[in-house]
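batch job 7 of whatever, protein = Probable membrane transporter protein
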Amino acid sequence: MTDTANTSLSRHPASAFSGGAIIGALGGLIGLGGAEFRLPILIGFFNFAALEAVILNKAMSLVVVATALPFRAGTVPFSAIADNWSIVLNLLAGSLIGAWVGAGWATKLRSETLYKVIAIMLVAIAIVLVFGHDAAAGQPLLTGVSQLVAGVVAGFIIGIVASLLGVAGGELLIPTLVLLFGADIKLAGSLSLAVSLPTMLVGFTRYSRDQSFSVIGRNKAFLLIMAAGSIVGTFVGGLLLGIVPNAVLLPALAIILLISAVKVWRH
């Protein structure tokens, strides 16, 4: 069987939906969209080039985040987000610039270099997953001007990572909101979505200026089917939240990311 035939088989609608659902469920189990897990699958299983995979991942992340925000409104009302507008704006001040810069870097990097950058960032996400996800809300780490500056810097870094991986950045945003601003974990989840959506739109706009953006037009059906699977999986994972203890779940997911990082590095 030729490579083209293999690729066509792997991108079958059933594979796209199933892959999205499994990844969404993994993310939903820890309160995330799962885009960090989706990217290695797009590269390793669905055989997309690095930049194409990032752009497709970004498009799917946009769809998932746009639907997740109203889904969470029953738990965290929009008024709670509005009450914390200053935190959202603080992080956006850095993340919007970071998203533009990160997308610009991604379009200029050689494919081999981008694979390695993605692999390194997957390792970093795995580390944060284990050591940062169970952070407990309490007093803000910093206050006043120091907090403001730290928020902009953190937002900038998160914006770069989100653009380079095509993710929403919740894995980094939630610990930042909990530790730096002392936000409750449920509120942090919704605030992270409020920061992620405009951040991803900026990165998406920057990617639209590159010729690789045509991958979306060529794979519209695949994109929508996998995004639908991700939404269903995220919903199911959210229902199962808490069934698997974090002491088991988080290290297991971190190992998946580390294995994915090795495969992407060797790609």
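notes: The chain has a mean pLDDT of 87.
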